[in-house]
UniProtKB/TrEMBL annotation:
PROSITE patterns associated with the record: PROKAR_LIPOPROTEIN (PS51257)
First and last residue of the signal peptide: 1-18
Lineage: Bacteria, Pseudomonadati, Bacteroidota, Bacteroidia, Bacteroidales
PANTHER family named in the record: HYDROLASE, PUTATIVE (AFU_ORTHOLOGUE AFUA_7G05090)-RELATED (PTHR36845:SF1)
InterPro entries per record: 6-hairpin_glycosidase_sf, 6hp_glycosidase-like_sf, Glyco_hydro_88, UG_Glycosaminoglycan_Hydrolase
Record Pfam families: Glyco_hydro_88
Family per similarity comment: Belongs to the glycosyl hydrolase 88 family.
Entry protein name: Glycoside hydrolase family 88 protein
GO molecular function, one term: hydrolase activity
Keywords associated with the record: Hydrolase, Signal
Length: 415
């Protein structure tokens, strides 16, 4: 009895003490914390842009720490509008939808762009993401027109979409005839979707041909991929296998591996062709088992960079792979790719990679690499690192809620 009384008094005292304490706010969960951070950074970013009165498109920071804005024909112009759509998806706040529409529609004429292959990134991340979320009929026409433009770069003898013109810019000085870069795998989603939206199977067939040729010619025995394969226009034979942004022709450029893993996973989504998923998994296995992959799964910019561990990391490659892994998790039962993706995302969200609000030019992630051989964008924020990071967060959210991905239209669109 005595003991009981003591316990009763102690319990009362505890309640009284708690009532006198200042109220502790519950710590927001992981996703809420990430959304709050993204909203805070993008609020500052878009306030700067809106105040300028121009439709600016931020890509990165220069060596002096100034924000670099890009013209609409830059390959990265779709990522910032795309991030606005992802902000809308994460918050359901109409403010982000309005900004997303504004920055997306500034890219309208990109649908006619035919002088490089990146229209898939540009229109895919902006218009296609918007269309998936809000279904604007006029966006559908832009997506199909852009797919037509991209298709003009298809070279039937080689069965591939030519990435870069062989007589333009620094690429024109390399002696290439029909250069195809692994990055081009990321443009195929636009073609698959254009067939779905228009009923014209030409786009789908071009995408399949490109994926098949890439699978045949871009990979080494260890399933790492080359960056550039140059084809002969006359007969489609391979003229050379090289790099442009990696350390060496025979090295494994980290973002190239990311483009391959993500790109072949997307091809599987639209075709259900097991060979594509197998290729994505094989390249993922290369990535995961390479001795130079750090424990946080965020790679150095090239797996063969000479001064590892004193080489910059590439957060953009990691973010892209994390997003792909969440999709692969649904296709590869029993592999728990989600756990790997969670590891990457958790590290990206940590203080080593995520910038403090108001810093880093108001980009979300630090520590990506554009192109070391060109001396450009070394250890900087990049708008595509942020885009794929946000996409990964959305996929994580949807997986954990047992929901289909909010911006993957259909799983069964085999033509
Ligand atoms: N698509 C160009 C790059 O990945 O840097």
């Amino acid at each position: 009895m005595k003991i009981k009384n003591h316990l009763g008094i102690a319990a009362l005292a505890a309640v009284a003490l708690a009532a006198c304490q200042p109220k502790q706010e519950a710590k927001p969960d992981f996703l809420t914390e990430e959304i709050n951070n993204i909203v805070a950074q993008h609020t500052i970013q878009t306030d700067i842009i809106e105040k300028s009165g121009k439709c600016l498109n931020p890509r990165t920071l220069d060596t002096l720490g100034n924000i670099v804005y890009v013209p609409i024909d830059d390959w990265t112009s779709g990522f910032f509008p795309g991030s606005m759509w992802l902000d809308y998806d994460l918050t359901k706040d109409e403010k982000w939808k309005n900004l997303a529409e504004k920055y997306t529609e500034a890219l309208d004429s990109v649908k006619y762009l035919k002088w490089h292959h990146d229209v898939g990134f540009m229109i895919g991340c902006s218009y296609l993401t918007g269309y998936r979320l809000c279904g604007q009929p006029e966006y559908k026409d832009v997506i199909v027109e852009a797919a037509k433009s991209l298709s003009t770069r298809f070279r039937p003898n080689a069965g591939v979409i030519q990435s870069w013109d062989a007589d333009r810019g620094w690429q024109g000085k390399r002696g290439w005839e029909c250069p195809v870069i692994i990055d081009n795998m990321m443009n195929l989603e636009l073609l698959f979707e254009a067939t779905r939206l228009s009923g014209d199977s030409t786009f789908h067939k071009i995408a399949v041909s490109h994926a098949d040729q890439t699978m045949k010619n871009h990979f080494r025995a260890d399933n790492s991929c080359y960056h550039v394969v140059d084809y002969a226009l006359k007969d489609g034979s391979v003229r050379s296998r090289q790099t442009a942004q990696g350390y060496a022709h025979e090295s494994a450029w980290a973002r190239g591996q990311a483009w391959a893993i993500y790109g072949f996973t997307t091809c599987y989504r639209y075709t259900h062709d097991q060979r594509y998923l197998d290729q994505a998994e094989k390249t993922l296995n290369f990535y995961l088992t390479d001795k130079n992959l750090p424990k946080d799964l965020i790679p150095y910019w090239d797996f063969d960079a000479p001064k590892i561990p004193n080489e910059p990391r590439d957060a953009s490659a990691a973010a892209c792979i994390a997003s792909a892994l969440y999709e692969m998790d649904g296709y590869c039962q029993g592999k728990n790719y989600k756990a790997l993706a969670d590891t990457i995302v958790t590290h990206l969200a940590g203080p080593d990679y995520k910038a403090k609000v108001g810093e880093n030019g108001n980009f979300i992630l630090m520590h990506s690499v554009g192109s070391i051989p060109h001396g450009q964008e070394i250890d900087v924020p990049l708008n595509y690192a942020d885009y794929y990071y946000e996409e990964a967060l959305i996929r994580k959210r949807d997986l954990e809620n047992n929901q289909p991905f909010s911006f993957v239209t259909e799983k069964d669109s085999v033509q």
